[in-house]
Amino acid sequence: MAEELLRIDDLHTSFFLEDSVVRAVEGVTFSVRRGEALGLVGESGCGKSVTALSMLRLVQEPGRVLRGRVTFSGRDLLTLPESAMRRVRGGEIAMIFQEPKAALNPVFTIEFQIQEMLRVHTALSKADRRRRTVELLDKVGIAEPAQRMKDYPHQLSGGQAQRVMTAMALSCRPKLLVADEPTTALDVTVQARIMRLFRQLQEEIEFAFVLITHDIALCAQAADRIAVMYAGVIVEIAATRELIRNPLHPYTRGLLDSLPGRTARRELRSIPGTVPDPAAKPPGCFFSSRCPLAEARCRDELPEMREIAPDHWVRCVRV
Amino acid sequence: MNDANEILSVSGLHVHFPLRRGVLSRTVGWVKAVDGVDLSVPEGSTVGLVGESGCGKTTLARTVVRLIREREGRIAFQGEDLTQIPSARLRQLRRHLQLVFQDPFASLDPRFTVAQILQEGLRILEPKLSKDARDRRTAEMLTEVGLDPESMTRYPHEFSGGQRQRISIARALIMRPKMIILDEPVSSLDVSVQAQVLNLLRDLQRRFGLTYLFIAHDLDVIRHMSDEVYVMRAGRIIEQASTEKLFGKPSQEYTRRLLDASPRIDAGERGTHRR
């Protein structure tokens, strides 16, 4: 097993609103191994994006990381001075987001924006930065990079914009790339090309990849391991094949059963009810209010993560 | 195709939008959003319409329900050409042809209560209905779509995405339509909620004998819902087949590409084709 690059321990992040406290992340623990692709999957509001923002210390008021530890290459990111943290962000850990066009600055050329990254994070000369920009755009599949890099973001399609974001993210040779719903706004054919690009780049440049998505099928194709989140906690984590073939948590099973198109036209086994209001989660296991297997003890306390099979962890007392 | 039991028939439909430039807004060209579409929907069936963003599927839907004017073409609903009949007759027919939009956050007026939203159409088309009768029908419809009739007095912001889409469906259903055009009805919903709404739609179809034109970009959803599928690209229908045939043996390269691109959980599994 490859060595751990990132380890998140018991991470808690809450948002302090005027009349309520939203516990968005409530004790998330997982690790990312060097060179692997980890899928972090869950429905809207489950805390997957807040987890990523917390580990990069990008959570904004009224949100606060309350406790936990984020160990990256031997350092605790949560206690690092801000100046050192700034070098980690965009340098050793890069992040890309859902709306590539919103993440790019509309008034600067692509060339300027990629070079800005290199200016901040490397000691390359101007000529070298230019060369590297062309090289990066070429690597992410932008045709005629030397010309296209003079374009402004509005001149790009959604797919091209996400390629440019990827080029920026990879510009400083990160050890870890965190992608939050990178293809959600794109058409399926474009999505397939971008996912292929990630895989190919990962083989070439050897970085670890955290893919945050609501799409478990996409995860199954792109990730070595999958962590399933629900209402602020990870409920199950295992190797992709194991998780898909042998899902143990009732929520993971429900998610898989809810997918249409697996078998033709039968009634879908949906999960009853809706995700609990994050400011008013049920007592005990957060899934107990929707769980077909729930019994009295499920409402007493939040179950611990247990290793049911080697490397297969589940947070459920009924398994 | 001209089935005896066909409820909607679209033929030779063209919808063009002008491209305007300059201070005088001169028309310098046309965007052919729908560029010669033929489509036939048999009564009681679900016809799926799939395509990527910008292919014209939403424009097609909106033209069929007369929210957008066509440049040319025929839209026959229950045998009557909607593009030709007088507006009074169109109003009568249109109640049997309802549309449910994609975004349940944008399509419900935030200042209206659920009762007001559901009853707006009734007030116009059945003005003689008493308030009691309207409220009874509203309560009935809310129950049909799995909502508490008590929620009548509440406002859209008090509901989740899935519940809002149920309200949209109830708004269509209260007119007792024969056909509903569903434009991406589940694409903004989480999978577990999406499954509930898909089950609800199938259940309502059975009980009310509804016909659906189901528009989506998600092939799995289309496959799950449809008897027959049309694939649209750049304003044209490029393939039409039964669901089984389209997914089993697509004849067009583009359809094959779409099928290959959509992530499949059983086929996927990175471990199997990597390193």
Structure commentary:
The complex is a heterodimer of chains A (319) and B (275). Chain A is α/β, with parallel strands linked by helices and 319 residues long. Chain A has a domain at 4-92 and 172-263: 3-Layer(aba) Sandwich (Rossmann fold). Chain A is built from 11 helices and 12 strands. The longest helix of chain A is centred in the middle third of the chain and has 18 residues, at 188-205. Chain A has helices at 48-55, 82-88, 100-103, 110-121, 126-139, 145-148, 158-170, 188-205, 216-222, 240-245, 250-258; strands at residues 4-16, 21-33, 37-41, 63-72, 75-76, 93-96, 176-180, 208-213, 225-230, 233-239, 306-309, 312-314. In chain A, the strands form 2 sheets. Chain A has an 8-stranded mixed β-sheet, sandwiched between helices. A 4-stranded antiparallel β-sheet of chain A has the order 2-1-4-5, covered by helices on one side. The model of chain A has no long low-confidence stretch (mean pLDDT 92). Chain B is an alpha/beta fold and 275 residues long. Chain B has a domain at 109-175. In chain B, strand 1 (6-21) and strand 2 form a beta hairpin. In chain B, helix 3 (114-125) packs parallel to helix 5 (161-173). Chain B is globular and about 55 Å long. The model of chain B is unreliable at 271-275 (pLDDT under 50).
Write the layout of secondary structure elements.
The complex is a heterodimer of chains A (319) and B (275).
Chain A (H helix, E strand, L loop, with lengths): L3 E13 L4 E13 L3 E5 L6 H8 L7 E10 L2 E2 L5 H7 L4 E4 L3 H4 L6 H12 L4 H14 L5 H4 L9 H13 L5 E5 L7 H18 L2 E6 L2 H7 L2 E6 L2 E7 H6 L4 H9 L47 E4 L2 E3 L5
Parallel strand pairs in A: 3-8, 3-9, 6-7, 7-8
Antiparallel strand pairs in A: 1-2, 1-4, 4-5, 9-10, 10-12, 11-12
Helix pairs in contact in A: 4-5, 5-7, 7-8
Chain B lengths: L5 E16 L4 E17 L3 E5 L6 H8 L7 E6 L2 E2 L5 H8 L2 E4 L13 H12 L5 H14 L16 H13 L5 E5 L7 H18 L2 E6 L2 H7 L2 E6 L2 E7 H6 L4 H9 L14
Parallel strand pairs in B: 3-8, 3-9, 6-7, 7-8
Antiparallel strand pairs in B: 1-2, 1-4, 4-5, 9-10
Helix pairs in contact in B: 3-5, 4-5
